[in-house]
Amino acid sequence: MDIYKNQLAQVHITDMSEDGAGIGHTRDGYTLFVKDAVIGDVVNARIVRPRKYYGFARTEEILLPSPDRVRPRCPVASQCGGCQLQALSYGRQLDFKQGKIYNALLRIGGFPEETLNRALHPIISMERPYRYRNKALYPVGTDRAGNLVAGFYAGRTHQIISNTDCALGAEGNRKILELILHFCQTNRISAYDERTGRGTLRHILIRQGFATGQVMVCLVINGERMLGEARLAKRLFMKIPGMTSFYINTNTEATNVALGKNSRLVQGEETIEDTIGGFRFGISPRSFYQVNPVQTERVYAQALAYAGLTGRETVWDLYCGIGTISLFLAKHARQVHGVEIVGETVDDARRNALLNGVDNVSFTVGRAEEVLPAALASGGEKADVIVVDPPRKGCGGDCLTAIAQMAPSRIVYVSCDPATLARDLNFLSQNGYRLEQVQPFDNFPQAVHVETVVLMSRTGR
Ligand code: SAH
CA separation (Å) from 183 to 146, 229, 232, 236? Predict the structure, then answer.
């Protein structure tokens, strides 16, 4: 069949892409990415961008709705790119994520079905899969009527669609956003305009310690100071329960990165605190901190269980962030070494160790793929257990080679991307390690992402 633009095709949706498009095939086997379709739908799709081997389409008509189709909680779910799976029932979302991991380990990892049937456990879900995020970042703009709005960019444009009540974030965010917008509107503080580079307010960042109730607000502005910032701070502290810390962050660059390098404390404390599993963590505006505290506690407990510590081990925690996993492990190990690339984050990690009275951890600023080989070359360093928790691009060859040479008896891999996880596990399985356990966690309900904790053990080859 010839494929041409504006053609209609009947498609049965069987999968979903990273950006939430339904994936299906036409009767002739041509692959289509279909906007606004979910797994199980049969739709009439209008082809908008045909390519040689696949094409993009949008749903013209739902011929047979999927039995797993649900009404999204957000009225703007289909325009907003923040999460992709709201129109799919939670149970089906979980199947989709489980399948994603299975397929990645099978196809990219090269693990046989028997191994996966033995090692891969069912995903651990959330009892309440909404309102779980402790961090919200809202871009600010101007609507057609000239009003200041916070919300999200409508696909491919610079128009901001107002939405102050994201269903994944805390309920209290709405009041904070409305207060700030109202203040700026009445004080004639304008929104930043990406096209002209003019205007003031760019983003509103809200972080909360769910366990402590503490709230941090950070305004990202196009300049050093904002007119009336001290008055706004006072108002927030008066009206928002738990308000702990108010920052102004400066970002004058034409960039998609939301926060600039410099943050200035206007009122309150430098950090907000949260607790996970009995440990206290101080969080500053730019530090990485897991966004879903309920699931994170389960992930860390699993990582600790897989580490199998008795109190005598030397452990390395690579990609350690603010030292969360390091502190969990330190209680049960002889010594923990954390490695993290961002200097400020390592400062937070050291402060967190002090805050919790943990003295058998040390932290090194640097790239895991450089710090570990250097430790190995120095001769004096060993590892009984190595934990890794890399960003989505995974560990990469140099880091994995050094890990295999250090020959710990167990490796615990915490991953937020099944494809790079599978690639890295394949390498380890060819370099002396056996896949023991794979435990997925739904840390990102309504979104396509999934977290996995894996145990590999040394076979002695
Ligand atoms: N384990 C932590 C952080 C995980 S996020 C937690 O659960 O909170 C991954 C971390 O790896 C980030 O803090 C990031 O700054 C860091 N990172 C990224 N590339 C790195 C590299 N090449 N070497 C070491 N750390 C790196």
Answer: 15, 10, 7, 10
- Ligand 1 pocket check for 389: Cβ under 6 Å: yes
Dihedral sign for Cα 303, 307, 313, 315, please.
Answer: negative
Which of 259, 287, 288, 297 for mutating ligand 1's site (highest number of atoms within 8 Å of CB)? 288
Mutate to test the pocket of ligand 1, among 257, 302, 320, 352 (most ligand atoms within 8 A of CB): 320
Q: Which two tokens stand for residue 363?
A: 């932290």
Model pLDDT for residues 9-24, shown as the tens digit of each residue: 999 999 998 778 999 9
At residue 198, what is the residue type? R
Average pLDDT score over the chain: 94
- For the Cβ of 392 lying below 6 angstroms from any atom of ligand 1, the answer is no
Mean pLDDT of 431-459: 97
Query: How large is the C-alpha radius of gyration of the chain?
Result: 24
What is the Cα–Cα distance from 236 to 244, expressed in whole angstroms?
Answer: 10
As annotated, the active-site residues are 416
Total-model pTM: 0.93
- Ligand 1 atom closest to the CA of 326, numbered from 1: 1
Summarised one tens digit per residue, pLDDT across range 33-54 is: 999 999 999 999 999 999 999 9
